[in-house]
Amino acid sequence: MTLQKWLPLAGRTLDAIQKTAWALFLLFLPVTSFPYFPKVFGGGALVRPLSLFPLILLILLFTLPHLVRRPIPRTLIMLLPFVLVAVASSLVSTLRGIESTFSVTQMGRILRALVTLVIGAAMYYTVALYPRSDDELRRSLRWLYAGFALALLWGSLQSVYIVEFDSAFFHKLQRLQAFISTRKLFSTRASGMTYEPNWFAGQISFLLMPWLLASVLSGYSAFRRRWRWVTVEWFLLLWAVIVLIFTFSRAGIAILFLLAFTGFLFLRGQRESQPSHSRRGRRFWLRRLAEVGAVLVVLLGLIYVASLKNPFFSRIWSYWSDVKQTSLGDYFEYLGFGARFSYGEAAYNIYEAYPLLGVGLGNYVFYFPEMMPDRPLAALPELLRLIVPEGNRERLITAKNLYYRILAETGLVGMAAFAAFLMAVFGCALFLWLSPHKEQKYWGRAGLLGLIAFLVSAVSFDSFAIPNMWVVFGLVTAAAWVFSRSEGRDDPANRGGMT
Fold it and tell me: Which domain holds residue 70?
């Protein structure tokens, strides 16, 4: 075969491999604790995304060559300062002479934390660069929905034994779950294909819900087939809401309420026939508030009915009738947030002691015992188990709050750099939302909803390896880049051309 014939064949083969890897990356996103993970890829970690395997292939065959040879959105550069600050903070921390404790070494924690940040950054860069047209953006959504359809189906099967427990059925699913996740199923909560129900709820409310809700609000669909105004996204949205409720995740359901309130009140599309002056009138906003109220009442009713199967979740409202002397502080303690508050207070105390660059990625664990708030540990058995020595078990102590972690481990400089990155993503979403074109406006709505979901969900997770935020931010960046180039405009995040 001559070189002229071989080169096109090689190009088509490479393109097919990239497309397959991209589809698998999106399909595998719901699996976050894959049990068959080599140690070299972090086999001992809690977060083991199955999507990492096709991601590695994409990085080698697409992302790295693309970064070297082609222009990229300036929004991508906005993440680099945070990465550099994290590396600098970690290097400075090695000069402090931190002693090993909790069966881990300082260098081990730093390397582990930096690897997770590199994985997260690689996800963001790959997702932001791969879709190069509006067709590829729509195709990406379809693959994302396909992966979550499988996850929702698996979560629906788990909801069956939550409604009416059947030991034989539960143990059958338990055996199958062992091939998907490192943790066993919960008999009273749906955990999907993830490590625990809270992770599953975070996926649905943060990684899936913004795209579905934006579709319902705008009438835009990634699929050609629809029945009048009913689209595939309508069906997936209703399905996702029902399964989300059975996770009994307070954070996930809080995000659902916030997205529903914000979306239906402020981001809902307008009918073309509606006069512009009526959109600003009192009657319009009263009607909007009534519609939002109806949606929230329906959601609250569904949650209340489902909570009858989960006494712990029902404590959200039972506190006010079970406890005679109520207070807001006691209410959160009653809900089990006491340990979370202690993690956050310890992180803030670390930030106050090292405000500029923090203590370095992963080093929160070494400062935790001395920076804990002064409160009795008898009422917080979770903390007691962490700080009391027990064999050689490794203590994976984290802030469990991304904001506090960034403050404690990278200081004000790191927080400022991360905030600048968030503002760049917000600029992309706003650019799309303000567009007169329906498709661009859809991506803008989804981007704004995704940022709202992030701002809330970040108080309950702190790992850089969880794909949720990187995929959402990456797709928003990709959409802004695709549509700005198609119209001959500059990168919306930085009006200075390309780099």
Answer: 3-271+279-319+401-486
Which 3-state string (H, E, C) describes the chain? CCHHHHHHHHHHHHHHHHHHHHHHHHHCCCCCECCCCCHHHCCCCCCECCCHHHHHHHHHHHHHHHHHHCCCCHHHHCCHHHHHHHHHHHHHHHHHCCCCECCECHHHHHHHHHHHHHHHHHHHHHHHHCCCCHHHHHHHHHHHHHHHHHHHHHHHHHHHHHHCCCHHHHHHHHHHHCCCCCCCCCCCCCCCCCCCHHHHHHHHHHHHHHHHHHHHHHCCCCCCCCECCECHHHHHHHHHHHHHHCCCCHHHHHHHHHHHHHHHHHCCCCCCCCCHHHHCCHHHHHHHHHHHHHHHHHHHHHHHHHHCCCCCCCHHHHHHHHCCCCCHHHHHHHCCCHHHHHHHHHHHHHHHHCCCCCCCCCCHHHHHHHHCCCCCCCCCHHHHHHHCCCCCCCCCCCCCCHHHHHHHHHHHHHHHHHHHHHHHHHHHHHHHHCCCCHHHHHHHHHHHHHHHHHHHHCCCCCCCCCHHHHHHHHHHHHHHHHHHHHCCCCCCCCCCCCC
* C-alpha 126 chain-centroid distance: 16
Longest dimension (CA), the chain: 86
- As given in the structure block, the two tokens for residue 115 are 């690897």
Least confident of 12-21, 28-37, 245-254, 379-388: 379-388
Distance CA 193, CA 334 (A): 29
In a domain, 377, yes or no: no
The number of distinct structural domains making up the chain is 1
Task: Give 62-116 pLDDT, tens digit per residue.
Answer: 999 988 877 777 888 999 999 999 999 999 998 887 776 666 788 888 888 999 9
Does 334 map to a domain?
A: no
Q: Per-residue pLDDT averaged across 168-190, rounded?
A: 93
- Tell me the C-alpha distance between 423 and 435, whole Å: 18
Asked whether residue 374 is domain-assigned, the answer is no
Alpha-carbon distance of 483 to 499, in angstroms, equals: 17
Is 396 a domain residue?
no
Torsion of CA 232, 237, 243, 248, to 10 degrees: 170
Above 90 in pLDDT, residue 143?
Answer: yes
Q: What pTM value is reported for the model?
A: 0.89
- For 25-46, write each residue's pLDDT tens digit: 999 999 999 998 777 665 567 7
CA atoms within 13 A of residue 260's CA, in its CB half-sphere: 21
